[in-house]
Amino acid sequence: MDIDALRTFVEVADAGGISPAASRLGVAKSIVSRRLARLEADLGVQLLNRSTRGAALTEAGAAFRDHAARVCAEIDIARETLQPAGELRGRFRISAPLSFGPTHFAPVIAEMARRHPQLQIQTCYSDHFVDLIGQGFDCAIRVGYLPDSALVARRVGPIHGQLLASPAYIAAHGAPQTPDEILAHEALMQGTEHWQFMDGDQVISVRPQGRFKADNGMALVAAAVAGLGLGYLPDGLTQTHRASGALVPVMTRYPVRPAGAYVLRPPGAHPARKIRELIDLLSAYFEQSPNLEPPSAHNAATPPARR
After folding, report:
1. Over 6-69, what HEC string results?
2. pLDDT (tens digit, 9 = 90+) per residue, 165-196?
3. Which candidate, 119, 155, 157, 156, places its Cα nearest to that of 138?
4. Of 19, 48, 82, at which residue does a domain stop?
5. Domains held by the chain: number
6. pTM of the model
7. Co-location of 152 and 271 in the same domain
8. Which domain holds residue 31?
9. What pLDDT is stored for residue 301 in this prediction?
10. 21: in domain
11. Kind and range of the H or E element at 117?
Protein backbone atom coordinates (compact mmCIF):
# COMPACT_ATOMS: atom_id res chain seq x y z
CA MET A 1 0.00 0.00 0.00
CA ASP A 2 1.37 3.41 -1.04
CA ILE A 3 2.26 5.60 1.96
CA ASP A 4 1.76 8.75 -0.12
CA ALA A 5 -1.76 7.63 -0.89
CA LEU A 6 -2.42 7.04 2.79
CA ARG A 7 -1.11 10.50 3.72
CA THR A 8 -3.19 12.06 0.97
CA PHE A 9 -6.35 10.32 2.16
CA VAL A 10 -5.79 11.56 5.73
CA GLU A 11 -5.26 15.12 4.46
CA VAL A 12 -8.44 15.04 2.36
CA ALA A 13 -10.41 13.58 5.26
CA ASP A 14 -9.18 16.26 7.65
CA ALA A 15 -9.40 19.17 5.20
CA GLY A 16 -12.83 18.20 3.91
CA GLY A 17 -11.96 18.40 0.25
CA ILE A 18 -9.44 17.73 -2.49
CA SER A 19 -8.55 21.39 -3.11
CA PRO A 20 -7.62 22.28 0.48
CA ALA A 21 -5.74 18.98 0.84
CA ALA A 22 -3.77 19.68 -2.32
CA SER A 23 -2.87 23.11 -0.93
CA ARG A 24 -1.66 21.57 2.33
CA LEU A 25 0.38 18.95 0.51
CA GLY A 26 1.75 21.37 -2.08
CA VAL A 27 0.71 19.19 -5.04
CA ALA A 28 -1.78 19.46 -7.89
CA LYS A 29 -5.40 18.43 -7.36
CA SER A 30 -5.01 15.84 -10.11
CA ILE A 31 -2.27 14.10 -8.11
CA VAL A 32 -4.51 14.01 -5.03
CA SER A 33 -7.36 12.51 -7.07
CA ARG A 34 -5.10 9.84 -8.59
CA ARG A 35 -3.72 8.84 -5.18
CA LEU A 36 -7.21 8.54 -3.74
CA ALA A 37 -8.42 6.45 -6.68
CA ARG A 38 -5.40 4.17 -6.32
CA LEU A 39 -6.00 3.70 -2.58
CA GLU A 40 -9.70 2.95 -3.04
CA ALA A 41 -8.84 0.46 -5.78
CA ASP A 42 -6.31 -1.27 -3.50
CA LEU A 43 -8.82 -1.50 -0.64
CA GLY A 44 -11.81 -2.31 -2.82
CA VAL A 45 -14.03 0.22 -1.01
CA GLN A 46 -15.12 3.81 -1.49
CA LEU A 47 -13.57 6.01 1.20
CA LEU A 48 -14.95 9.40 0.17
CA ASN A 49 -18.07 10.84 -1.38
CA ARG A 50 -16.97 13.61 -3.75
CA SER A 51 -19.11 16.60 -4.65
CA THR A 52 -18.68 20.17 -5.78
CA ARG A 53 -18.79 21.18 -2.10
CA GLY A 54 -15.89 18.95 -1.10
CA ALA A 55 -15.33 15.38 0.02
CA ALA A 56 -17.09 13.62 2.88
CA LEU A 57 -16.03 10.37 4.48
CA THR A 58 -18.10 7.29 3.80
CA GLU A 59 -18.76 4.92 6.69
CA ALA A 60 -15.77 2.84 5.56
CA GLY A 61 -13.64 5.97 5.19
CA ALA A 62 -14.49 7.17 8.70
CA ALA A 63 -13.48 3.77 10.10
CA PHE A 64 -10.26 3.74 8.09
CA ARG A 65 -9.10 7.33 8.72
CA ASP A 66 -7.65 6.86 12.22
CA HIS A 67 -5.90 3.64 11.22
CA ALA A 68 -4.32 5.39 8.24
CA ALA A 69 -3.17 8.33 10.39
CA ARG A 70 -1.56 5.98 12.92
CA VAL A 71 0.24 4.07 10.16
CA CYS A 72 1.66 7.32 8.75
CA ALA A 73 2.78 8.46 12.19
CA GLU A 74 4.42 5.11 12.96
CA ILE A 75 6.30 5.15 9.66
CA ASP A 76 7.60 8.65 10.43
CA ILE A 77 8.80 7.50 13.85
CA ALA A 78 10.42 4.38 12.34
CA ARG A 79 12.32 6.49 9.83
CA GLU A 80 13.56 8.80 12.56
CA THR A 81 14.66 5.79 14.62
CA LEU A 82 16.73 4.48 11.74
CA GLN A 83 18.24 7.89 11.01
CA PRO A 84 18.15 9.88 14.29
CA ALA A 85 20.78 12.35 13.12
CA GLY A 86 19.63 12.54 9.52
CA GLU A 87 18.22 15.48 7.63
CA LEU A 88 14.65 16.45 8.47
CA ARG A 89 12.41 16.08 5.44
CA GLY A 90 8.77 16.37 4.52
CA ARG A 91 6.22 18.94 5.57
CA PHE A 92 5.89 20.71 8.92
CA ARG A 93 2.70 22.71 9.57
CA ILE A 94 2.83 25.01 12.59
CA SER A 95 0.15 27.22 14.12
CA ALA A 96 1.60 30.28 15.88
CA PRO A 97 0.03 33.31 17.58
CA LEU A 98 -0.28 36.51 15.59
CA SER A 99 0.56 38.66 18.61
CA PHE A 100 4.03 37.18 19.15
CA GLY A 101 4.55 34.99 16.11
CA PRO A 102 5.87 37.27 13.34
CA THR A 103 8.13 39.28 15.67
CA HIS A 104 9.33 36.71 18.20
CA PHE A 105 8.83 33.17 16.92
CA ALA A 106 9.24 33.62 13.16
CA PRO A 107 13.05 34.06 13.39
CA VAL A 108 13.29 30.81 15.36
CA ILE A 109 11.18 28.96 12.79
CA ALA A 110 13.25 30.50 9.98
CA GLU A 111 16.41 29.25 11.67
CA MET A 112 14.94 25.76 11.72
CA ALA A 113 14.25 26.01 7.99
CA ARG A 114 17.82 27.20 7.39
CA ARG A 115 19.23 24.17 9.19
CA HIS A 116 17.03 21.72 7.27
CA PRO A 117 16.81 22.65 3.55
CA GLN A 118 14.67 19.55 2.78
CA LEU A 119 12.01 20.47 5.34
CA GLN A 120 8.92 22.25 4.00
CA ILE A 121 7.61 24.53 6.76
CA GLN A 122 4.18 26.18 6.61
CA THR A 123 3.28 28.48 9.49
CA CYS A 124 -0.18 29.95 10.07
CA TYR A 125 -0.22 33.05 12.30
CA SER A 126 -3.49 33.62 14.12
CA ASP A 127 -4.59 34.41 17.66
CA HIS A 128 -7.48 31.96 17.25
CA PHE A 129 -6.93 28.45 18.56
CA VAL A 130 -6.93 26.02 15.66
CA ASP A 131 -8.06 22.40 15.59
CA LEU A 132 -4.69 20.71 15.16
CA ILE A 133 -6.07 17.39 13.98
CA GLY A 134 -9.03 18.69 12.01
CA GLN A 135 -6.98 21.37 10.23
CA GLY A 136 -3.91 19.24 9.66
CA PHE A 137 -1.32 20.96 11.86
CA ASP A 138 1.64 19.09 13.30
CA CYS A 139 1.85 21.37 16.34
CA ALA A 140 0.94 24.79 17.72
CA ILE A 141 2.84 27.44 19.66
CA ARG A 142 0.54 29.01 22.22
CA VAL A 143 1.07 31.63 24.89
CA GLY A 144 -0.86 32.46 28.03
CA TYR A 145 -2.64 30.13 30.43
CA LEU A 146 -3.09 26.70 28.94
CA PRO A 147 -6.66 25.36 29.11
CA ASP A 148 -7.34 21.69 29.72
CA SER A 149 -7.37 19.65 26.52
CA ALA A 150 -6.50 16.27 25.09
CA LEU A 151 -3.42 17.76 23.38
CA VAL A 152 0.09 17.05 24.64
CA ALA A 153 1.81 20.25 25.83
CA ARG A 154 5.47 21.07 26.45
CA ARG A 155 6.29 24.35 28.19
CA VAL A 156 9.20 26.13 26.47
CA GLY A 157 9.38 29.35 28.48
CA PRO A 158 7.70 31.90 30.74
CA ILE A 159 5.49 34.80 29.72
CA HIS A 160 5.56 37.73 32.13
CA GLY A 161 3.09 40.59 32.04
CA GLN A 162 1.91 43.70 33.86
CA LEU A 163 -1.22 45.74 34.35
CA LEU A 164 -0.54 48.92 32.38
CA ALA A 165 -2.20 52.22 31.54
CA SER A 166 -1.26 55.44 29.81
CA PRO A 167 -0.45 58.53 31.86
CA ALA A 168 -3.46 60.24 30.28
CA TYR A 169 -5.81 57.51 31.44
CA ILE A 170 -4.41 57.62 34.97
CA ALA A 171 -4.75 61.43 35.07
CA ALA A 172 -8.39 61.20 33.98
CA HIS A 173 -9.55 58.12 35.89
CA GLY A 174 -6.96 57.27 38.51
CA ALA A 175 -5.33 53.88 38.95
CA PRO A 176 -6.65 50.83 40.83
CA GLN A 177 -4.85 49.94 44.03
CA THR A 178 -6.40 46.49 44.56
CA PRO A 179 -7.86 43.88 42.18
CA ASP A 180 -11.41 44.67 43.31
CA GLU A 181 -11.00 48.27 42.13
CA ILE A 182 -10.42 47.08 38.56
CA LEU A 183 -14.18 46.60 38.28
CA ALA A 184 -14.61 50.38 38.38
CA HIS A 185 -12.29 50.86 35.38
CA GLU A 186 -12.42 50.35 31.65
CA ALA A 187 -10.59 47.12 30.79
CA LEU A 188 -9.09 46.27 27.41
CA MET A 189 -9.91 42.63 26.76
CA GLN A 190 -9.82 39.82 24.24
CA GLY A 191 -13.26 38.58 25.22
CA THR A 192 -14.73 37.64 28.58
CA GLU A 193 -11.53 36.43 30.19
CA HIS A 194 -10.50 36.56 33.82
CA TRP A 195 -7.42 38.48 34.91
CA GLN A 196 -5.24 36.78 37.49
CA PHE A 197 -2.99 38.48 40.04
CA MET A 198 -0.75 37.26 42.82
CA ASP A 199 -1.10 38.20 46.49
CA GLY A 200 1.90 36.35 47.87
CA ASP A 201 1.18 32.71 46.98
CA GLN A 202 -2.54 33.30 46.52
CA VAL A 203 -4.07 33.77 43.07
CA ILE A 204 -6.76 36.45 42.84
CA SER A 205 -9.05 36.22 39.84
CA VAL A 206 -11.00 39.22 38.52
CA ARG A 207 -13.51 39.37 35.67
CA PRO A 208 -13.11 42.89 34.32
CA GLN A 209 -15.51 44.89 32.18
CA GLY A 210 -14.85 47.14 29.22
CA ARG A 211 -16.16 48.39 25.91
CA PHE A 212 -13.01 47.79 23.83
CA LYS A 213 -12.21 44.22 22.80
CA ALA A 214 -9.79 42.76 20.28
CA ASP A 215 -8.50 39.27 19.54
CA ASN A 216 -4.95 40.52 18.97
CA GLY A 217 -2.41 41.59 21.59
CA MET A 218 -0.92 44.45 19.59
CA ALA A 219 -4.39 45.93 19.10
CA LEU A 220 -4.86 45.96 22.87
CA VAL A 221 -1.45 47.60 23.32
CA ALA A 222 -2.46 50.35 20.87
CA ALA A 223 -5.71 50.90 22.77
CA ALA A 224 -3.83 51.18 26.06
CA VAL A 225 -1.42 53.73 24.58
CA ALA A 226 -4.43 55.69 23.31
CA GLY A 227 -5.74 55.92 26.87
CA LEU A 228 -8.82 53.75 26.42
CA GLY A 229 -8.35 51.71 29.56
CA LEU A 230 -6.27 49.27 31.58
CA GLY A 231 -4.26 46.68 29.68
CA TYR A 232 -3.39 43.23 31.04
CA LEU A 233 -0.45 42.88 28.71
CA PRO A 234 2.64 40.68 28.23
CA ASP A 235 6.05 42.33 28.58
CA GLY A 236 7.19 41.08 25.19
CA LEU A 237 4.67 43.37 23.46
CA THR A 238 5.10 46.48 25.58
CA GLN A 239 8.83 47.00 26.22
CA THR A 240 9.11 49.97 23.83
CA HIS A 241 6.07 51.74 25.27
CA ARG A 242 7.20 51.16 28.85
CA ALA A 243 10.66 52.47 28.05
CA SER A 244 9.23 55.65 26.49
CA GLY A 245 6.73 56.22 29.31
CA ALA A 246 3.73 55.79 27.00
CA LEU A 247 2.56 53.00 29.31
CA VAL A 248 3.22 52.75 33.04
CA PRO A 249 2.61 49.87 35.49
CA VAL A 250 -0.29 50.19 37.92
CA MET A 251 -1.32 48.16 40.95
CA THR A 252 2.21 46.79 41.27
CA ARG A 253 1.56 45.40 44.74
CA TYR A 254 -0.41 42.63 43.01
CA PRO A 255 1.74 41.33 40.13
CA VAL A 256 0.20 39.57 37.17
CA ARG A 257 0.27 35.81 37.48
CA PRO A 258 3.06 34.47 35.21
CA ALA A 259 1.89 32.58 32.14
CA GLY A 260 3.83 30.41 29.72
CA ALA A 261 4.66 29.58 26.12
CA TYR A 262 3.90 26.04 25.00
CA VAL A 263 4.28 23.73 22.05
CA LEU A 264 1.17 21.59 21.67
CA ARG A 265 0.85 18.45 19.57
CA PRO A 266 -1.86 15.84 19.00
CA PRO A 267 -1.88 12.86 21.37
CA GLY A 268 0.72 10.19 20.72
CA ALA A 269 3.46 8.35 22.55
CA HIS A 270 6.39 9.80 20.62
CA PRO A 271 6.62 13.33 19.20
CA ALA A 272 8.12 13.61 15.73
CA ARG A 273 11.74 14.75 15.66
CA LYS A 274 10.78 17.96 13.85
CA ILE A 275 8.56 18.85 16.83
CA ARG A 276 11.32 17.97 19.29
CA GLU A 277 13.76 20.20 17.44
CA LEU A 278 11.31 23.12 17.42
CA ILE A 279 10.91 22.66 21.18
CA ASP A 280 14.68 22.73 21.62
CA LEU A 281 15.06 25.90 19.53
CA LEU A 282 12.27 27.71 21.35
CA SER A 283 13.61 26.62 24.75
CA ALA A 284 17.04 27.97 23.83
CA TYR A 285 15.46 31.24 22.70
CA PHE A 286 13.68 31.68 26.02
CA GLU A 287 16.89 30.88 27.89
CA GLN A 288 18.62 33.71 26.01
CA SER A 289 15.64 36.09 26.14
CA PRO A 290 13.74 35.38 29.38
CA ASN A 291 11.77 38.63 29.01
CA LEU A 292 10.70 37.58 25.51
CA GLU A 293 12.62 40.22 23.64
CA PRO A 294 12.57 39.80 19.84
CA PRO A 295 15.51 37.51 18.95
CA SER A 296 18.51 38.83 17.05
CA ALA A 297 19.87 36.82 14.14
CA HIS A 298 22.79 35.76 16.34
CA ASN A 299 20.58 34.52 19.15
CA ALA A 300 18.24 32.69 16.81
CA ALA A 301 21.18 30.83 15.27
CA THR A 302 22.73 29.68 18.55
CA PRO A 303 22.51 25.88 18.75
CA PRO A 304 20.22 24.75 21.56
CA ALA A 305 21.38 22.59 24.42
CA ARG A 306 20.26 19.00 24.07
CA ARG A 307 17.66 17.81 26.55
Report:
1. HHHHHHHHHHCCHHHHHHHHCCCHHHHHHHHHHHHHHHCCCCEEEECCEEEECHHHHHHHHHHH
2. 999 999 999 999 999 999 999 999 988 789 99
3. 119
4. 82
5. 3
6. 0.71
7. yes
8. 3-82
9. 45
10. yes
11. none
